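Researcher: We are triaging several targets before committing to wet-lab work. For this one, the compound of interest is 6-O-phosphono-beta-D-fructofuranose. I'm pasting the protein sequence and the ligand SMILES. What I need is the predicted three-dimensional arrangement of the protein with the ligand bound, expressed as structure tokens, so it can go straight into our comparison scripts without reformatting.
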Amino acid sequence: MAHISFDSSNLSTFIQPNELGEMQAMVNAADDQLRNGTGAGAEYTDWLHLPTDYDKDEFARIKKAAQKIQSDSKVLVVIGIGGSYLGARAAIDFLNNAFFQAQTDEDRKAPQILFAGNSISSSYVHDLVQLIGDRDFSVNVISKSGTTTEPSIAFRIFKEMLVKKYGADGAKSRIYATTDKERGALKTEANSEGYESFVIPDGVGGRFSVLTAVGLLPIAAAGADIDKLMEGARAAENEYVDTDLSKNEAYQYAAYRNILYRKGYETELLENYEPTMTMFAEWWKQLAGESEGKDQKGIYPSSANFSTDLHSLGQYIQEGRRTLMETVVKVQEPKHDVVIPSEDSNLDGLEYLQGKTMDYVNDKAYQAVVLAHVDGGVPVMTVNIPKQDEFSLGYLMYFFEVAIGVSGYLNGINPFNQPGVEAYKTNMFGLLGKPGFEEIGKELKSRQK
Ligand SMILES: O=P(O)(O)OC[C@H]1O[C@](O)(CO)[C@@H](O)[C@@H]1O
């Protein structure tokens, strides 16, 4: 039995009973493209078997490195952007205390995990340096290419800080490089400087890399059980193999979102009712957006955090343009529950809820929102997960990865490339005067007012 469940029961006013079955032939073809390597981008599908087929020696090394970081550092600075950071960030938030990063070093029982190199904000880096202060720290620099501008700038800054604090040799023993197995600038530097290094496998694109060292080292350093994370993903790998739409809920999700997309529901909101899942949605947004948004088509992935955003975006979702569909990731059992206290004055009118738990109210909010949004013309799908633990997270991430792979093929694109990301980089290099980009720089500058 599947560990998580996909609930499509609220789609009945938007999709007729015959429509899912009519997608079966297309799903069969998409499954063939994905699993038999007949589709575009087949060289980037090794993530499909990562939960079973991974480097066990490296996995043990990751756990050892995490222990070393825990023993000699109060802070781990994780440098990376896009798929080289979002999975770790999402997992660490999802699995830990809501105030993990704000806890004292003693309470946290693991290093504070701070992220850099995911923007070019100087103010952010300045403040991060201040926050580290004189505490012991290590750096995990994550980049397949080793030349991505944002993480490369951050790496220079934190490497210099390490050298000043620990000397050249001390710094080397505190830098962990996660990169290509043999090529690229970071691999070359790791080899020559002797940094401990971990591999981003060739057949795994950044947005599908959370279950490699890219995600696993920071997640383990934060104190999570990465064996359980892999176990959950492995269970999902075994679960979502049947091509039959009536049996494979990840494929069902892929098919339904494509049916809806073709009816004009062009934006999908990934929603949660737990603030610790905000970054999970950010991970999902790259997974879906970078995979599917190409050739001038694709579902636009967005997100909303409830009930917070019901008081900001709620109006639009209820009554704005009818192009939205929603996918809720609903946690069945909270990490902790809290009873609502009684108050004699009852000025807030809440006495009818005294003695009930907050999670009871949160669940009723979810039920109420589904009813209201469906009535308002917004199709709602729900992915139910039992709780926020490592096993469930590994399972859930695999669910979305396999669903997005199939979904991309259903829409006739290559889900595993990202040619569009280069356009801004080329322009930026031109404007910055990077050697080799002089011509484009001249042309761009002539167009600027
Ligand atoms: O690991 P790298 O090479 O620094 O790239 C980081 C990110 O940049 C992209 O290549 C493009 O945004 C992503 O796919 C990737 O996750």
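Researcher: Any quick observations?
Model: The beta strands are 5-7, 75-79, 112-116, 137-142, 175-179, 196-199, 267-272, 300-305, 324-331, 380-385.
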